[in-house]
Write a structure and sequence with these properties.
alpha/beta, Rossmann fold, 6 helices, binds S-adenosylmethionine
Length: about 200
């Protein structure tokens, strides 16, 4: 998959994304902290963005945080240095991760699969690099189940996608398609902002 246009978009977004992140963190930060508190062992965080998620990580984890945008990672670096544990940054496309099968005990995502161009391909990669008894923990916004809101999100997505994420992702379905079993689904705001916890199917 060609990443050129996607990379330019997210490199540009790195300039302004922190302005919207303040409100998101104030409103939803506690849910993210509670979710991330369950992280254990070797942990992969996808995608790092400017590092807003690092403050929600429990201390003393061994974390690798990846993002494909150089500009995002530059902004994330000072925040990574403040983490009380081990936090390494790596520039990587989630659709082609440079890790061996079964590397991670925990994988965390935060507003990631609204943004990855081929979500099922990215999620399949997460399935591959997760240990057989590992856990995927996701904080994501998704397409509303309400027909009116869902169609509105479909109509808005071609515009939102020009500068940022899609608004109409069916992330629960995508997680299942990628070989996971969802063991917990929690609505943080309506059925739009959600937490998913998943294990490898058959684990
Ligand atoms: C909406 S931002 C969220 C960033 C961060 N998790 C947060 O909540 O502040 C989406 C992030 O996904 C990254 N991204 C998009 N597609 C990606 C890909 N294929 N591989 C790695 N990172 C990707 C973007 O660079 C951007 O940093």
């Amino acid at each position: 998959m060609k990443l050129g246009g996607e990379l330019v978009k997210w490199d540009r977004a790195a300039e302004s994304i922190d302005k919207t992140a303040v409100g998101v963190e104030r409103r939803y930060g506690k849910y993210k902290r509670n979710l991330f508190a369950g992280a254990r062992g070797r942990t992969l965080l996808v995608a790092a963005g400017t590092g807003q998620d690092f403050a929600s990580l429990p201390e003393n984890l061994r974390v690798t945080a990846v993002d494909f945008s150089r500009a995002m990672l530059e902004k994330a670096r000072p925040r990574a240095a403040l983490y009380k544990g081990s936090l390494n940054l790596a520039r990587m496309d989630v659709q082609r991760l440079a890790f061996r099968d079964g590397t991670f005990d925990t994988i965390l995502t935060s507003c990631t699969f609204c943004s990855v161009r081929d979500p099922v391909e990215g999620l399949r990669e997460l399935n591959r690099v997760l240990k057989p008894d590992g856990r995927l923990m996701m904080f994501e916004h998704v397409r509303a189940g309400n027909p009116f809101l869902g169609i509105l999100m479909d109509l808005m997505t071609p515009v939102s996608r020009l500068v940022g994420p899609d608004l109409n992702r069916r992330t629960g379905e995508n997680v299942r398609k990628a070989g996971f079993e969802i063991v917990r689904e929690f609505n943080v705001y309506l059925d739009i902002v959600k937490i998913f916890e998943a294990i490898k199917r058959g684990a």
